[in-house]
Amino acid sequence: MNSYPSKLIENAVNEIAKLPGIGRKTALRLALHLLKSKEENTFSLTNALTDLRTQTRYCKQCHNISDEEICGICQSARRDRTLLCVVENIPDVMAIENTGQYFGQYHVLGGIISPMAGISPSDLHIDSLIERVQHNEIKEVILALSSTMEADTTSFYIQKKLKPLNVKISVIARGIPVGGELEYADEITLGRSIQGRISAE
Amino acid sequence: MNSYPSKLIENAVNEIAKLPGIGRKTALRLALHLLKSKEENTFSLTNALTDLRTQTRYCKQCHNISDEEICGICQSARRDRTLLCVVENIPDVMAIENTGQYFGQYHVLGGIISPMAGISPSDLHIDSLIERVQHNEIKEVILALSSTMEADTTSFYIQKKLKPLNVKISVIARGIPVGGELEYADEITLGRSIQGRISAE
Asked: Least C-beta-crowded within 10 Å: which of A46, A168, B87, B199?
């Protein structure tokens, strides 16, 4: 698709195709869809995106997206303020919230340590995590990071920093996914699930 | 994903997910991508979409998208003005242009006759097609519509309308796709490819 009938559509396709996972064919389909549907639809889309980008605020305490200075989870009296779950990013908070299994607070790092991508500990919200643990009555920090090399590095770095503060540190369980079959699990996962076995009583 | 951390992101996800083929998970990923990238990126996207929707014009002659009153293809002296290719929609023009095999002009119907979707001949650019054939020296009209029931109905309707004008009418060939294997072709396609066989000399 290299011959666009107008500069306007070419420009729109170029911009839409910059979004992750959207190619030029899909971008063209979306642009033509907007052209065919009511003008208001395009305006409510562009307004929502502009508002999102210009007005979004981040919770001063946990760095999650928030409508106010302190987010709903941090403000809530129902959440256990002695329990802190450390995650990489905002979708991780949403994923854990959707499990309905966690009632403590969060701390969003905003990424993981990655020398390859030029992300060092100072680029992440690690200092504010340490401060938060120092100045609040926090009994347990749960590290809920992915299971990759870089996430493990980040995990170890945070554990080292937290050690002097005498707080309980835990890591989410690695093992066979629920519904997963043993024979198809990779060896490392299976090994971890045996190491991390729990009492069946 | 039902617990969004802010109204702004919820609103943006709702709007993005209205686009065809984009679900709520993808919409969230796109919204978070915009939040992470520079403000300018969001602005150039929203500006491109607004410009597309408010400033796009259509060629008065062929109804293709155009930057000017008459599109580049209709204006071009290099295109054969006695040859007219009738297509359903704008992407079809682009697809045929990309083949590099066609050097005539186009006529975009803007859809096909579909009683189920409430689209009647008067909703399409059929009258302007007839007028165009009447008032210009057009020797051949090529019907390049899809191979569906509704497209066939549209094709027959146009043929009936064009008949009194004594213009040559042709239909693009139906048959085995290039690179396609005979044994996997459906019976109707194979039947059509035999009926429509051409001399191999």
From this structure: B199
